[in-house]
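Q: What changes when flavin-adenine dinucleotide is included in the input?
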Amino acid sequence: MKTTTQALIIGGGVVGASVLYHLTKLGWSDVMLVERSELTSGSTWHAAGGFHTLNGDTNMAALQGYTIKLYRELEEITGMSCGLHHVGGVTLADNQDRFDMLVAERAKHRYMGLETEIVGPEEIAKIAPITNLDGIVGGLYDPLDGHLDPSGTTHAYAKAARMGGATIELHTKVIETNQRADGTWDVVTDKGTIHAEHLVNAAGLWAREVAAMAGTYVPLHPMEHQYIVTDDLPEIYERDAEHPHVMDPAGESYLRQEGRGLCIGFYEQPCEPWAVDGTSWDFGHELLPDNLDKIADSIDFAYNRFPVLERAGVKSVIHGPFTFAPDGNPLVGPVPGLQNYWSACGVMAGFSQGGGVGMMLAQWMTTGECERDVTAMDVGRYGKWITPGYTRPKVIENYQNRFSVSYPNEELPAARPHRTTPMYDIFSDLGAVWGHQFGLEVANYFAQGDEPDYEAPTFRRSDAFAATAREVKAVRSGVGINEVQNFGKFAITGAGARAWLDRIMAGRIPMPGRMSLTPMLSPKGRLWGDFTVSCLSETEFQITASYGAQDIHHRWFMQNAQPDAHVENISDRRTGFQIAGPRSRDLLAACTRDDVEGIKFMDVRRMTIGQVACIVQRVSYTGDLGYEIYCDPMGQRQLWWTLWQAGQPMGITPFGMRAMMSLRLDRFFGSWLSEFSPDYTAAETGMDRFISFKKNVGFIGRAAAEADRANPPARMSVVFEVDADDADVVAYEPVFIDGKVQGFSTSGGYSHHAGKSIALALIPRALATEDLEVEIEIMGQLRKAKRITTPLFDPDATVMRG
Ligand SMILES: Cc1cc2nc3c(=O)[nH]c(=O)nc-3n(C[C@H](O)[C@H](O)[C@H](O)COP(=O)(O)OP(=O)(O)OC[C@H]3O[C@@H](n4cnc5c(N)ncnc54)[C@H](O)[C@@H]3O)c2cc1C
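A: The predicted holo structure follows.
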């Protein structure tokens, strides 16, 4: 057995094999995979082998598209068969909401170049004649849906990897992973020790145990899952062509042809987590005992939807475990807090996603970044707050919702509240309707009077519309107050703090007492963060950005660490409030003896507010005159009572995220993972105006940003006023210019201040005329939209800066 390697992958399921292949594809040939048994010995061997592109996250859908197209390539390279059946598939909708969701998915597919199609009951009858269409409104047909041979495909990946130089050691169990001082790994197996520069955890059902060997936790949990294979059915074997897949979300089932019969699997409500206290090393190539009682309701439903099933005998029942992350997406990338340790776990749909996961991880390992935004599957999207106690109920919820309609304004209830600030009960008493961000409870709005204390999930304007309008008006006419807990915050201290910031951030780093906005770029010039930098002194800075991205950002900071700059994640150690609106200055002045009048836009000061030591920043994401006031969480309630009592005569009003996201539209402010994301460069999004090309520093991404400046990118971010009805854009709606899809929305919503529906979108720069008129598809309807270039509130920023 080889005893040294550049990269060692633990686990020979479909995911480990795909990572191995993709590393060789990208040029690493000194790579190795160890498998404790035979290839496919975890979840992989008993999978139903189905694949599809449908995924609520657009980047995940694109990676699923990549995976499906890869199989032919594998067959060509290896001469092996993946047992491909490209039969197409239809997802049924039995009510208007489900149909609306499919229509919205179809709209996204248009700009992604996927050839899906909305079909009515008559077409479904032709595509899938065994379906009882009672109550079916329509469906989405995807010609790429199909299935394959799980074992053949995994072996094809393995052969292709071997052809690229990779080594595979079977019957070799990893028992310890020990890091050396230089960051490389000694991997102890039952056949000897292997020294690896990089380590990949692709241990599937045992990923938790393998992660624990390195002292870390991967937030996933295995769930039991069953599918049934029927005896031969004449309705199937007498057909001229293979029957396509049918996904019936109402019945939580997926169905396809298997041989001369059918195969149907269920995501049943009374589902069971498996191996709660850990996966036994003795679990091998085996199945769980049949449990048809657990899926009895689902089977009854299926008998009605596919009456042919009632006449079919059961040939076999496959009951096995597979892993899920709390949101159902994979856990991929560098594990925060560890060096040279990579995750390729939690892949619940290995045959839809395994290729994309392998490709992205291999790009990350070989080049330092991926070609697209992989936040949706980044292992760093969960922070240190995540525990098995949180993961398990979330995974159960995810399994149960696998086929549910998922709405843009939906807040899922399991495992909540998980993390709360000292304001939780005070805000609850004020009517807070809570949302959930990165484990934290965040107020979406505050219900008053007969406003609903639960926001009903919808694709259209929600029943929080009136409450949001009221809060927006209160901010714009008086003063609003909201927490600043949900910002990611870092303290950068030390003699080298400024130099470090200058290198890591593309923008200007401010002088003491001042703030600046700056993009953080990847080496290839893509956006890795949009930060606010506050200089408290030459050796002390506070930087803020997305709360949800804090671990991803911290990981990047650690990868670029410098001994004389100390970086500390203080996201949960500094909290406070933002106050915004024309009376916000009066409010602040009423709470302090310090000078308020002299604080200019983008100033930062240490001040005493009431009794509490605070950092006050003159800035507002709502676009109003406003302040962010940070304090120690222990002082937050005291600070609240000071501001709240002083604000009473001014009509102080608490406002939530719904109002904030409406207010920011008026000034065309973008937001992280919508307008600004690793999918885009600064110049595409307008963030380049914050890049300091004047500073004499080789900041990360400089060469790429300069290239963009010399040759402006082909697309640019613009704003439209949309002639909408009762639904606004959410994201990724296609933008039609001259009747062709030429762009897509990045976010939008309703401006309560202006009474207008607004869309932010990326379109070709060459077509971005000042008076451009386009159409945007919202809920299946083409809506006229015209470009606007003047902000809807405070167009010359005199209020915000005044
Ligand atoms: C009933 C059922 C039906 C399914 N149907 C589908 C479907 O239709 N389509 C689809 O896309 N997905 C389906 N899946 C899910 C699919 O099986 C998984 O997504 C996929 O198999 C995950 O692969 P993996 O490589 O991540 O993990 P695994 O297959 O679990 O592989 C992990 C491997 O790591 C090895 N290993 C673990 N620890 C060590 C160690 N210490 N040392 C050495 N080796 C180790 C194990 O032996 C194992 O071979 C289904 C799952 C089930 C249970």
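Observations recorded in class: Residues 58-78 form the longest helix (21 residues).
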